[in-house]
Amino acid sequence: MKFKQILILLLFSLVFLVPSVTAQNITLRSRLDPLPGKNAYSDIYAEGNIAVLGTYCKDSIGCTGDPNQLQGGLIFDISNPNNPVLASRYHPSPNQQMLEALVKNKIGYFGSGTGGGVHVVNLNDPYNPVLITIINATNGGGYNTIHEILIEGNFLYETDSRTPVIKVINISNPASPVFVRNITTGDSRFIHAVHIAGGRLFCSGWGGTTEIYDISNVGTQQPPLIGTVNSGSNSHSSWTSEDGKYLYNARELFNGDLRVYDIQNPANPVLVKTINADSLGINAICPHNPVVKGNLLYVAWYQAGLQVFDISNPANPVRIGQFDTYPEAFAPSEENFGNDAWDVFCGYMDLKETIARTNAIPSNYGGNWSVFPFLGEDKVILGDLTYGFYIVDVSKVRNTVLNKVADFDGDKRTDVSQFRPSNGVWYIENSSNSSNNAIQFGTNGDVRAPADYDGDGKVDIAVYRPTEGLWYVLASTEGFKVYQFGLSTDVPVPADYDGDGTSDVAVFRPSTGIWYIQQSNQGFSAIKWGVNGDKPQVGDFDADGKSDLTVFRPSTGIWYTYPSTTSIMRAVQFGVASDIPTVGDFDGDKFADVAVFRPSNGTWYVLRTANNSFFAAQFGVSGDIPTAGDYDGDGKTDFAVFRPSSTLWYVYNTGSSSVRVVPFGIEGDMPAPSSFGQ
Question: Residue 667 CA to chain centroid, in angstroms?
């Protein structure tokens, strides 16, 4: 078969630039939401098997009005990270808004944002917290109203987010706090947060400065000022690289940014890089809290969730992963568009206006508030303002993503494989050793639904039986499973929608355009995305480790994608009604790309998600079934087809630029790699 590159010109209606993410493997381990309702949670901290989470309030962002909204502090038992337990609530009377929560040596420090000072609590038994003392203006000389607290050595540092003064209190005996001194900064407004590293105190000032003090002898002398970073207005918080040479500063304001400063000479800091939502291709108001552990920079970035950067070169953070803690959409609601919410996409002008509204940077605060990575990369703890307490595994963030297209033996290569309806047998050629398997699993009328349902890196044989609404799964590790989920007219679209590494049972209902998803970790969801006649697709278009809702509309040739993390809806015209849609990572950048196979001329057309460039290749003839997958394990999707007339598979391996021809199957077989969306 001849393989050739063709340069073509295709028109598509809208483009969105999405910067590259070099890898993504952040998986959810667990989540708890003990106080359902918006704006419930704040800062997070942990030690050993104890985690503490502060609270904002349940219903009102300012916690004004009913004092019963104030929720105190939450204490978690995380001895099993996959199943954490809310051990107790520290909920004193009168009710307190405990914005800050720390734990050190099994003693909790809960900072009240409503005038209650810092409550020092014995957490030896996290299921039975006991108040030790309260640090306030009359006991220890602290603030009554707390916004941020930090413990370093024997000293507690407090800010009130109202004045430019930091209070230092000796807590070597937590039951008897002793006032040490005030550090009065030169910021024109107030100090919001502080960070300590290498004997230096970094004070993030709302007026636009981050002052640096030498606190080597804070217990005995006033710390000298050794440098000032003009970090910009609304400097919210900062953290240094582990060598102390670079400062990462987050500004909390509309379209705020993350700024990188060279502070090797603290008297002459130099701005070396600025990162914002636009440069990352995300839709979030601003970064909130940066934290460094090793050569990773973790940033709680409000609506965009957790953003993880490789800082092997600390002057040039490179994003390598993200995890969305905030599932709420910026997509238009049903109320905006009436009963058929997404049918508006049939009209270009309405679509353009909708996109413009959807892509606007949000003006409110919601999403990931805090991150704590100091228990290990496999147990990173997050606090989301609305959705609560998360534990995620970041240990594989530097790894390449596993191939999940018909990889039945887990070697990161797509296997030549198919389901034979006439006898219900799956035929698989294992790419790892070229052995052939024949497994009877299913009956005539079943719909192919192979996916990794047990999260072991191997795709499992599975079918959806429309007549019963049942899923039958032969999991490679966990064995036989049956799920009741769906109606006879539903289209199965299993994929990992919650980022826990396990495929979720899911269906698209053409009659209503609704996706029904039973997430393996985050429960049931139903989302309207599409109309009757759309073809649902499975792929991760924003490289966050979660499959995104995507449909191809043959009547217009438009693809509609709702990315799970960026929340920037994507709509591109790419293809015609007779094309066969397919999804794959054809350029190996970890972003799923839209593609179509055109039977009339045997040509593949691919639109790269990362930069909206496109290419075409002739590979196939009319009557072929497209079976794209990564057959050579190089991280790029390969063009492939099954030709029923000759029962031959043709695979173009991108790694070696060679064509492989495999006689496999009979006419009537249904290829496993083409199970979804065609």
Answer: 42
CB-neighbour burial class of residue 361 (10 A; exposed 0-12, middle 13-18, buried 19+): middle
Q: How many CA within 13 A on the CB side of residue 675?
A: 32
pLDDT at 566: 65
pTM: 0.76
Higher pLDDT, 241 or 402: 241
Tell me the average pLDDT across 386-395.
Answer: 94
Which token pair is 234? 């609304």
Closest-CA residue to 495 (of 446, 534, 541)? 541
Decide: 660 and 614 in contact? Cβ < 8 Å: no
Query: Do 608 and 10 contact (CB within 8 A), yes or no?
Result: no
- What is the mean pLDDT of the segment spanning 238-262? 97
Q: State pLDDT tens for residues 568-616.
A: 788 999 999 999 999 999 998 888 999 999 999 999 999 998 788 999 9
C-beta atoms surrounding 447 within 10 Å: 20
Residue 391 · residue 80 · CB < 8 Å: no
d(Cα 668, Cα 109) in Å, to the nearest integer?
67
Report in angstroms the alpha-carbon separations of 339 from 295, 343, 356, 513, 532: 49, 9, 21, 11, 14
